[in-house]
Amino acid sequence: MADFAHAFARRTRLRGGDELTTILAGSPPGVLSMTGGFPNPATFPTDEVDEIAARLVREDAAVALQYTPCEGIASVREYLIERQEQVQGRRPERAELIVTSGGMECIALMCQALIDPGDTIAVEAPSYLGALMAFGGAEAEVIGIATDDDGLRVDVLAERLAAGLRPKFLYTIPEYQNPTGRTLPLDRRRELVGLCRRHGVLIFEDVAYRELPFDGASLPSLWSLAPDIALQAGTFSKSLFPGVRLGWATGPPEVVAELSAAKQNTDQCAGGLGQRLLEEYGRAGGFERHLPAARALYASRWAALSAALKHHMPEGVDWTEPTGGFLTWLTLPDGLDTRAMRPAATAAGVAYVPGPPFHVGDSGRNTLRLSFSRLTETELETAVDRLAGVVRGALEQRASSRAHPV
Ligand SMILES: Cc1ncc(COP(=O)(O)O)c(C=O)c1O
């Protein structure tokens, strides 16, 4: 058989492991999965989608089933412009917004449009593994900036910039961050935009979970605070559904124009049916009708997970306290390795994502990410009980290997 290994591009070796493939493949039967940031199917507005999709095919096939302009269908962009004004308090100009095929595509477009091999990109440490893989594949030098309970340490970024760091952009997820679930407070948002303005650093703001605060309240987005230096990637994957790959990019016109041009080399345009469906759904008030119930569902799931963690986890295990989104981040006692624990977890019937793929390099071995979006409250309790058993097993193993070193 022919061997094509020599033909594969360098980036195939640079983009990182297969963790995303593992997440998207799902867990085996019997395993309670807390892996992917998947929305709960109970939040999918199936009746409305059924009615709108049928109507579009019947009455608007020439647009909905056709190719669309790279930057999106004009009426859809107009709707998204209005929606930005409604939910983020600032109305982008037409040249400041395009439709994308979801958040991940915007990350890919940013790589195409801005990253030359060897360029420096700054990210939160830890950060979204899909973005880290994309930046690695684009041959960027990715620099992790420390975070704390309030997200990005803007003071640390300031020190790095003062010391000469010159990133092409800073990639940040200001609310309910992936993987930590943390949110950047308002004072740090203001400091961050001031700092980046002074140094001429583009902020790449990923707002994937922004519309899912547990209590319905949101802080101003970085883009709304500084549209001149912030490029925002949004997605409808979490607030509507990911089955239609759809999102937006909004920011400085010259950056948006480059992203739109780069789209010629990805999918050329987001699917017309999904675009029109989103527009019809949104204009009919779908988000206002359905988001409150979705927020309440995720809030109740977090309450159940939080209670289960408090009840079951052994001493020395810490976790973050998200105020929205799907994710919490666990730190286990030193010396535990969440990748090495995974077979025991699968055998016990529970799945999580180990921490290292969210880090530049190989740190975070004693960390892991849990998603609470998809399991029921009872399942979350069982899943945490199982996970706590695995952690206790690893702690016992660590104690006995310390007592009897080989
Ligand atoms: C922070 C973040 N950005 C982007 C994405 C990808 O979004 P999309 O499904 O719209 O490509 C995700 C998905 O999990 C995410 O968590």
Folded structure, characterized:
This protein is of the alpha/beta class and 406 residues long. The protein is 43% helix and 14% strand. It contains 15 helices and 14 strands. It has helices spanning 11-14, 19-25, 46-59, 61-64, 74-88, 103-114, 129-137, 154-162, 186-199, 222-225, 253-262, 272-283, 286-312, 342-348, 377-403; strands at 32-33, 97-100, 120-125, 141-148, 151-152, 169-172, 202-206, 230-235, 247-250, 318-319, 327-331, 350-351, 353-354, 367-371. The strands form 3 sheets. Strands 2-9-8-7-6-3-4-5 form an 8-stranded mixed β-sheet, with helices on both faces. Helix 3 packs across helix 12 (272-283), helix 5 packs across helix 12 and helix 6 packs parallel to helix 7 (129-137). The longest helix has 27 residues, at 286-312. The protein is globular. The protein starts with 10 loop residues before the first helix and ends with a helix. Pyridoxal-5'-phosphate binds at residues 37, 102-104, 128, 130, 173, 178, 206, 208, 235, 237, 242, 247.
